[in-house]
Amino acid sequence: MADGISSFWGPVTSTIECCEKNYAYSSYIAEFYNTLSNIPTILLALIGLINALRQRFEKRFSVLHISNMILAMGSMLYHATLQRVICTVLSFNGTEPCIRHASLCRVVILQQQSDETPMVWEMLLYMYILYSPDWHYRSTMPTFLFLYGAVFAVVHSVVHFGIGFKLHYVILCLLCIPRMYKYYIHTQDAAAKLLAKMYVASIFLGSLCWLGDRLFCEEVSGWPVNPQGHALWHVFMGFNSYFANTFLMFCRAQQRGWAPRVVYLMGILPYVKIEKPKSQ
Ligand SMILES: [Zn+2]
């Protein structure tokens, strides 16, 4: 902790700490850059949400963008407080914000490790979007995924999986890759293909930043300016989710015969424009 600034949220209880100095700028924000760097993700998801709603894309895409926003907000809360337990309700005994009473909350309110359950739910939604169009028995897939998500949430609220959670999450991510690749090779549109390439590039650059932050923290801390690898990872991953969702919206619109085109907001930010036939 930086000298002279005391922490509003109590001692750091999180086990994963990033390279950024805690409480360097404000006693309310534990990790300044790691907190603010979630804002681009929220804004990009908001743009995606407005685009999905305005053109009446299927609800699954609105839910996807909203879930990205929620995860980014969870990440903000986590990096701002570095508390392992984030209370699910905002007021404890009606007067004080519960987060200040983390130790009491832990007893009273269901323990929940910030956003691991929503992360799994979001991945299940990706699997639904990717695989449901070619699933033979249409109604069985959402039912199965819903039950899977519900059972996971219940088990996860009781048992903390630790490394098992990460492994489970990686397997879910890997399961998405084959279908994503198949969409890529079947897409003719060059601008849509570029979205997929940007998706791969952003996850690659983001991972390099994340890894650099973890492996070379000591060296980096000696530099005149800390490049804030973890904060950069947030920014790259915000773009990564945006590119993934935009690419999936393009593929889905193509399946539905909505004549999708990739156009650019203010000449830079790609999004999907569709033209639905009159009957829809
Ligand atoms: Zn983070």
Textual characterization of the structure:
With 280 residues, this protein is mostly helical. It has one domain (32-82, 114-273): Rhopdopsin 7-helix transmembrane proteins (Up-down Bundle), CATH 1.20.1070. Helix content is 60%, strand content 5%. The chain contains ten helices and four strands. The chain has helices at residues 32-36, 39-54, 59-81, 102-108, 116-131, 140-158, 163-186, 190-215, 217-222, 229-255, and strands spanning 91-92, 96-97, 261-265, 269-273. The strands form two sheets. It has a two-stranded antiparallel sheet with strand order 1-2. Strands 3-4 form a two-stranded antiparallel sheet. α5 (116-131) packs parallel to α7. The N and C termini lie far apart (58 Å). It binds zinc ion (ZN). Zinc ion (ZN) binds at residues 34, 75, 79, 230, 234. Zinc ion binds at residues 34, 75, 79, 230, 234.
